[in-house]
Amino acid sequence: MTESINFKLKDIERYTKFIDLVSRYDIKGLRKFIHDNDTHEKEMFYEYLSYGDVELFHRVYPQAHTQKGDYVVGIIHNQYKDDLKAERLHGLDWDDYPEDYCDAEYPDECLYFFQYFHYSS
User: Fold this and answer.
1) Residue 110 half-sphere exposure toward CB, CA atoms < 13 A
2) Contact status, residue 51 vs residue 92, Cβ threshold 8 Å
3) Where are the alpha helices (H) located in the chain, listed in sequence order?
4) pLDDT 10s digits, 43-79
């Protein structure tokens, strides 16, 4: 019983974090949050975002429309790789997203760069 309750509490924590990131329009935070979940949760949060806030969805995953027919996990992973490539070209070399990756610390100045880089590669 305790295990079940802890699992539900973890679900509530994930939903609360997702809602908080969406309400703050934290694009990079959403990318990191969705990427860090297991496959089922990735797909679920991706779908919630795509149906709940289309405009924000297109800012979080600007290339999703060009990858129709691909698996959701693949689209999320492709965006992750694009983020890493763009940041490396800006002089940073990460093996992963920073621990506290958020728009306040890393402004979304390279959104257009992501789009350009993805189209040109």
Assistant:
1) 17
2) no
3) 2-23, 27-35, 39-52, 54-60, 72-89, 111-120
4) 999 999 999 999 999 999 998 888 877 899 999 988 9
**What are the extents of the domains in the chain?**
2-120
CA–CA separation, 86 and 110 (whole Å)? 8
Question: CA 119 → CA 1, 27, 65, 98, distances in Å?
Answer: 50, 20, 13, 25
Measured distance between the N- and C-terminal CA atoms of the chain, rounded to whole angstroms? 51
Q: For residues 26 and 15, what is the distance between their CA atoms, to the nearest angstrom?
A: 15
**Torsion (CA) 119, 36, 29, 88 in degrees, nearest 10:** -50
